[in-house]
Design goal:
This protein is mainly α and about 400 residues long. About 45% of the residues lie in helices and about 0% in strands. It is globular and about 55 Å long. Essential for the control of the cell cycle at the G2/M (mitosis) transition.
Amino acid sequence: MPATRVKKPAGTAGGKTAKAAKVGSENQEEGPQVKRSSSPPHGAPKKRTAFIDITNAHKVQISLPGRKKDAAKNPVKKSAVPGPPRARGHLKNRSASAASEGREGPRPPLLAGQRRHTPAQFDMDSENADDCFLCPDYAKEIFDYLKQREERFVLRDYMPTQPGLTVEMRAVLVDWLVEVQENFELFHETLYLAVKVTDHYLSTVPVHRETLQLVGSTAMLIASKFEERSPPCVEDFLYICDDAYGREELISMEASILQTLAFDINIPIPYRFLRRYAKCVGAGMDTLTLARYYCEMSLMDMELVPERASLLASACLLMALLAKGLGGWSPVLQFHAGYQKADLAPVVRKLHGALAAPPDDKLRAIRNKYSHRVFFEVALLPLLEQEVLDEALT
C-alpha cells in the first residue's frame, strides 16, 4: 500500500532539525542511545509494507517451522533415567576448552600488557594506551580474528535457488531496512548485520515473496538484540510492517532464522573494518562518511554480496581516498587490511559500476540519507571518473 514518509519535527533549539541533531551525533562517535517507546514507536515510519504492491499479505497463511501445532503432534518425551552426574568444574573446563578452541583452532593467549608484534611505523594503537575502552592491547588481535571468521561466512549468489524472489525485490527490502534503521535510530552496525543475517538465511531456505519482508524485519529484530543497548520490541516491528504478520509468525521466523544460522550471528560486517582502516590513515570524517556511503550502497547490489567484509570495506575506503585526492592504498593499509592494491581492483570496479548506474527512483533511501548536510552531502558529490580510477588501479 502506498505511503508517504514520516514528516520530521520542525526544529530544535540552535537552528538544527531533530534529524540533524540525531544523525550528527552518530556521524561522529557512537553517542548515548535514546530509549524508544513502543506501539507506535517514536519516529517510526508510517505503517506500510516494504513491497507496496502486496496488498493481501495479511491474508496469506505462512507455514513456518517451530509452530505449536507441530510440537503438539510430535511431543518430545524426556528420558526418565538421568545421566551420570558430573562435577561442575568438569563441565566448566570442558565448555571453556571448546570456547577457546572454536572452529578456528586454538589461539595462544596474550599476557597482560602484551601486544602482537607491530612495526613502529604501523602501530596505531599505542597512542591510545591509556584508553581501556579502545582495547589498544587487543585491537589488532580482535580484527585479525574477525578477518579469520570471514571464511566461515562467505556467501554465493543464491538467487537461482529462490524461484519466488528477484534481485530487485531484495534491493527493495534493503532500501526499506535503511528507512527502519533511520527512524528507529539504530546503530549502523545493526543495519549491516540485519542484511547479513537476511542473506545467510535466504542462501539456505527458499522463501516466498509474501514472506520476504517478514524475514527482513525479523533479521533486524535479531540484529537489534545483538547490537543495541535498547532494542525495539516485537510490537514495533509488527507496527512498521502494517500488521501484515502476526506475533506468532514473527517469533516463529526468529526461531527459524536462529536455527538455520546455528545461533552464530556474530557475522563480520564491512562497517567495522571500514572504521578501523580509516583510522589507520587518519581519514577525516568527510572522507569516512563518503566511504560509508559507498559501503551502504553496496548492500543493495547482489553482485557484491559474495565479497568478504574486510575486502569490501577496503575497496570503499580506497574509492573515497581517490575521490578526495588523498592518495591510494598505502603501506599501513596493506599491513592492517592484508590486501594489496591488485586484490582490491576487481571489487573497486564492481562498486564503481554499481554507483555509476542510473539511480532507481523507487530506491532513494540511502541517497536521501547521505544527501543531508550532517552527512556532508556526500551523495551529491560527483562520482570518480573512470579514467582516474583506471589510472589509480594500474
